[in-house]
Amino acid sequence: xxxxxxxxxxxxxxxxxxxxxxxxxxxxxxxxxxxxxxxxxxxxxxxxxxxxxxxxxxxxxxxxxxxxxxxxxxxxxxxxxxxxxxxxxxxxxxxxxxxxxxxxxxxxxxxxxxxxxxxxxxxxxxxxxxxxxxxxxxxxxxxxxxxxxxxxxxxxxxxxxxxxxxxxxxxxxxxxxxxxxxxxxxxxxxxxxxxxxxxxxxxxxxxxxxxxxxxxxxxxxxxxxxxxxxxxxxxxxxxxxxxxxxxxxxxxxxxxxxxxxxxxxxxxxxxxxxxxxxxxxxxxxxxxxxxxxxxxxxxxxxxxxxxxxxxxxxxxxxxxxxxxxxxxxxxxxxxxxxxxxxxxxxxxxxxxxxxxxxxxxxxxxxxxxxxxxxxxxxxxxxxxxxxxxxxxxxxxxxxxxxxxxxxxxxxxxxxxxxxxxxxxxxxxxxxxxxxxxxxxxxxxxxxxxxxxxxx
Length: 455
Description:
The structure is a single chain. By secondary structure, this protein is an alpha/beta fold. It folds into 3 domains: 2-66, CATH 2.40.50.140; 72-244 and 311-319, Rossmann fold (3-Layer(aba) Sandwich), CATH 3.40.50.300; 331-428, D-tyrosyl-tRNA(Tyr) deacylase (D-tyrosyl-trna(Tyr) Deacylase, Chain: A). Helices cover 24% and strands 20% of the residues. It is built from 11 helices and 18 strands. The protein has helices spanning 107-119, 136-152, 167-174, 189-196, 249-252, 257-260, 280-286, 292-302, 306-310, 344-356, 404-422; strands at residues 2-8, 13-17, 22-27, 47-52, 61-66, 72-76, 84-89, 93-98, 123-128, 155-158, 178-182, 222-225, 232-235, 331-336, 360-361, 367-369, 377-382, 427-428. Helix 1 (107-119) crosses helix 8 and helix 10 (344-356) runs parallel beside helix 11. The two termini are 44 Å apart. GO terms for molecular function: D-aminoacyl-tRNA deacylase activity; GTP binding; GTPase activity; metal ion binding; rRNA binding; tRNA binding. It is an enzyme of class 3 (hydrolase). InterPro entries: Daa-tRNA_deacyls_DTD, DTD-like_sf, G_CP_dom, NA-bd_OB-fold, P-loop_NTPase, Ribosome_biogen_GTPase_RsgA, RsgA_GTPase_dom, RsgA_N.
């Protein structure tokens, strides 16, 4: 059977078959690990071949092949800087939502996104959103940015979902196309999708008062069929930082249209527009014919400034700057370590054991209630050091700990299973990040549970 991936939750994929029927699918066998360098082997928009799983009581599917992608938007994973994350594939047009404040969108973030769209031949449009909130100062800043990018050749829209401004023009651009909305959390992606298609009723949240920034409401990328103009929209989670992937230094300038237009006028064919003499790009920069912000973004990408794209992050997920990633009140902090021999059976057993463990006090101060009984919350943090072996020598060995390509899918499944069991969102740390965890331990109660040693 053939189909298109409409939603990805990390371990399960919602696939629309050619018949129009939707199936929940997973990856068949070791397909996930073969030749896949990204954190997600399958992305929303992928055309896939799948078969029905005859071993299951429900009509689920097994994906066994991905068809060639015509394009995709890819970025460096913030949590795992050596890996990449494919946001979506087979896209006709991408819309980057830009806000001047609440939250602010940096020119560095805009330029990195546009460079990636250029590299994969995808038309990109800038949506300056929430214009109904503009003051005189923010309006001036927006108009300047619109001038900079429209001069380069990018289409720019001024939109307000609340006041229904720019919606008709946006619909015209989306007709007969698969579109993708992207941007930071809080820029109004879900609100705008709701304005385009009110029946979807996507969840929205207000801006965080403490950080003047968005809170994630779209947890996973998802495609929707719209009721107008044979249009499809891919709504994506808020992007915290956008790192450019796999570009040779000689080609980066080609994805800045205003640089590419001057390339033939440079003295050297391999000019990187840095310190070379008679560089047409540098001459244009000195004449203010090229925006300094664009040139700054170019040099940062050219120099492989990975740290800078992390500084585009406006989120409570930035553990490296001591900002709060997740917090709960009454509930469980679960440190989970995946080992190389773990399987879905281990995940299922561990999930059931944890949510039903009776370790919370009842009205008689007896440990007799489970997390489900008290409607408690949960934070899950990956912790490979739980597999430390100390039998030999004084330096722990972590040989049993699974590598990321094995651990990540199981970790994601563990989180998803917990959410299904509890019927609510589970807070998580950043997989593979240097986390600082604070705990007020009641009791204290600390319990070790090992799926390989079910005592």
